[in-house]
Specification:
The protein has 2 domains: 105 residues, no CATH class; 376 residues, MFS general substrate transporter like domains (Growth Hormone, Chain: A). 65% of the residues lie in helices and 4% in strands. Its main location: membrane.
Length: 614
Amino acid sequence: MDAQGWHRSSAAAAERDDALSTNEGSDGDTTVSMASSATSPDEDPSVRLLKRASVMHSPRTNAGNNAWQTLSDDASHSNSSDAAPTVVVVDDIKGLKQAVHDEMERIGCAKFQRRVVTILGFGNVADAVEVLAIGYILTVYEDAEGKISPWESSFLTAAVFAGMLAGGFFGGIFGDIYGRKPVLLTTLAINAISAFLSAFSTSIYWLIFFRSIAGLGVGGVVSSLFALCLEHVPVSSRGRYVTILCSFWMVGAVVTAGTAWIMLGNDTNGNRILNISWRWFAAVVGLPSLICLFFTSYYVPESAHFLASKGRAQAATEVVQYIHHVHGSDCLVEFRFSEADPPAVSNKPGTPATHKPRSSVSSVAQSTRGSIAGAIFDRAASSYAFGRLFAPSQLKCTLLLMMCAFTLSFGSYGLSTWITKLFETAGLSNPFANAFLFAGANLPGNVISLYLIDIIGRRKLLSGSFFASALCTLLFAFQLGGSATIIVLVSCLFNACTTAAWNAFGVMSTESFPLEVRTTGIAMVNCSNRIGAIVAQFVNGFLVGPPPHLEALLLVTTSVMVLGGVASRFVPNPSDDAPKPGEEPNPEHEDEDKQCDESARCLPTTERSDDCKA
């Protein structure tokens, strides 16, 4: 249906709203008859009513108990290609969030979701390329530009992670204020431009500077990337789709290793494959960001869940209609507030919504929309976000996730960034070829995690991957000076295990934060992630030498991974803790169920109350 048809349908629905029959109760309340959402196959598909009580009171008399009502077309219009939309009338923003949630669940997974995760996957490819590229550049930098000190090499490898620390923090805050998509597009542009400019660096200090700016883009991408993926798919499919999104890191790692081998490495005879400068490689690594930027701007809409949380009913309607259009569906849904002016949401969890004039709705977003500085220093928005993250009901989860992020980043980035240097110091003849095998080990890690994440759960997969990674680094330490084949094998096993750990962690960290502060929560976790990576660059840079202390490097990594495995065992993950169909609820989690409105966790089960789904 074209835009004119949509507006005609909306107008027709508005005219029929006043014609709906109403009944006067004994107490004078106006009621609208409702039906169950579970329609039989023989029912008219245009008559679709959302789950609520069979009798709904007028929002002016009982607005606190009922979130929405649905106004439907007559059955005679069901076969018309220009049928008016089903109008979902909500009382407040909580009702709008629930209505959007139910509609996204009804849509399910099809062409749109597959397209979104593929496009967003290129953003994860871009992140992998930017993070891993500097390790390959460092291997040949001294041959072209002259000797650099161990401290300079450590600063160079840490530069991108330092930028990611700042970019992830502010990117998460802006993502919860301005939206996921605009932040994602901005950070992808920063990423691509900085990668290109780094090719023109005239000294090691300029290269460090441009890598830091590139890190700003990389860090800002992550929180919005995962939030968009999570919020565009139904709850039951989130584990699978977020794991697929994580798997694109493997594509980036393999592309980076293969491109570095061709542009910077040697053939089997020890001769350079392409006799070109590292600057060409530095410029090429910005291409994935440009690809993701282009396709995201055209084919990935803003999250309907985010728009609903801001009270933007019309914008949420447009996103849902776009998804139906991509799926080739004639289903039309329109979200409306029951009053002319939508309600405003209090910044304090648990406080009922209050009605304000339209000009004051989403005052936080409107007051900060004019300047970036306003968004940074807006205490109403930032205090609310951090208050939710560190509230008693969320504190344990936030701190343990930050610990897991620190240890996992220290171990995985610490080895992957220095892997070519590590292979070279260990005496392997072709470090670029072996690094390519190391990158390819992402594949079994992704396959294993994709298969196990919904079978054994996120928490068990994460902790098991931590301990398996620690065992691999321990074996690596005892094989130094031994067989080159075994060294490469255990390093590949380590990479496969950390890949599975990252996939499980990505799903857990994304699911564990409330919708309103999701990107801020992901950003906080990623801050500890970046700190772990930065610390690893200086520790490993010192231990790589000269003189080299490879055994100490690997034993430190082993200890850190064991610590992460222990911490991951205590992370309260709602998807793992939710009772399976037919099981009795665990008494240990009854308190979490009672606080569901506060934590707003997304649980892949229909056992919870409707109010806890959004």
